[in-house]
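ZP: hey, is the zinc ion complex queued? I don't see it on the tracker
AM: it wasn't, my bad. submitting now with these inputs:
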Amino acid sequence: MNNFIFENSTKVYFGKGCVKEYLACKLKNYQTIMLAYGGGSIKRNGIYDEIMTILEKENKDVIEFGGIPSNPTYAKVLEGARLAKENGADIILGVGGGSVMDCCKAISLAAVYDGDVWTDFWQRPGCISFEPLPLGVIVTVSGTGSEMNGGAVITNEETKIKTGRDYPACNPNFALMDPEYTFSVPKLQTASGGFDTLSHIMEIYFSEPDENNVSDDIAEAVMKSVIRNLPAALKDPADYTARSNLMWAATMAENRVIKLGKKTDFEAHQIEHQLGAYTDCNHGCGLAVIQPTYYRHIYKDGLKKFVRFAANVWKIPPRGKTDEELALAGINALEDFIKEIGLPKTLRELGIEDKGILPEIAQSCNISPGSYRQLTHEEILEILKESY
Ligand code: NZQ
Ligand code: ZN
């Protein structure tokens, strides 16, 4: 394994009833709470009422910050930071999925920082030598794993750049994770979030080192768990076993544990992020379109690992197959799974009508240093065209 330093400062409270049981205690040192959420699902499924009842009982001053969009924008970050400053928020309580949590992390910096956080912390990696505004999160949809890392993916609409950075200082202080809160997540978002989890694991697994290591072994176990539990949650949205496994698998994929000692790839994410910056597409759906095509481009450069993926994750019998055939059979199995869970397979199905934007998207993608083979922008364009 490669050398590593490991840190994770988020305290997780997981399971049925955890919000009722722990929220008041987690907020006892804070009076003014900035309650941040997305487009309103929490008002329809009862989560908002459950939280407000607790906050009112504790006599908290609540500042509401709703309307955080999927693929959160830098403009929304600045709006939230202004509100937090004007009202003297003591803590941000983010209730939602990756979009809400990421936006809140950026707000926690922008609310206390004098400079421009986009320029200093997203456009280029920065060094956070100050205390962000405290942040706690309540997860309502599984997928990104944002609840237990310092990652925040923000879209700058002016420059058309969507980019993520992971700062340990941005790890939420606490994460409350009640799988029952995800029962109301619609099928497409359930599938897209589950695929995002699988995607994160593959982005890590398909990178060096490839020799025997704990991270890859855990990665295979978590991938198999997602492949088992995602169809079950789609069949029965109130299947607690499936929802709880998906919720923890999402966290495990992105809490840095399975990255230890690995280079990590994330080129599919780089491409999807730019696709998102130009089209505002759903993150997990974008990945589902890109990732199999990307792997058909690079599998020969990491052949042994793709063979292992086919055999260990998809249980494809190796007999009578060359390594290349086996590797391709694993990628085909991944594609069949994407079809089974009802995600789009082409950019056209994703709703992208104008093929003319593809060259600009390809040109704007970052090239990941951790891939089995580094792509050129020309090859990214080929991948996008093949995915169309
Ligand atoms: O906005 P509301 O009305 O709440 O509806 C949301 C939204 O439409 C809905 N939803 C959430 N909880 C629900 C629910 N609907 C019904 N019942 C519930 N309990 O789900 C929709 C999607 O929510 P969103 O937060 O946008 O999804 P997700 O968690 O997939 O987050 C996507 C964002 O996270 C970034 C993505 O790029 C994207 O911007 N990522 C963040 C990462 C990180 N911080 O580590 C890593 C990822 O790779 C990813 O890039
Ligand atoms: Zn992702």
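AM: back. The first strand starts at residue 11 and ends at 14.
ZP: great, adding it to the tracker
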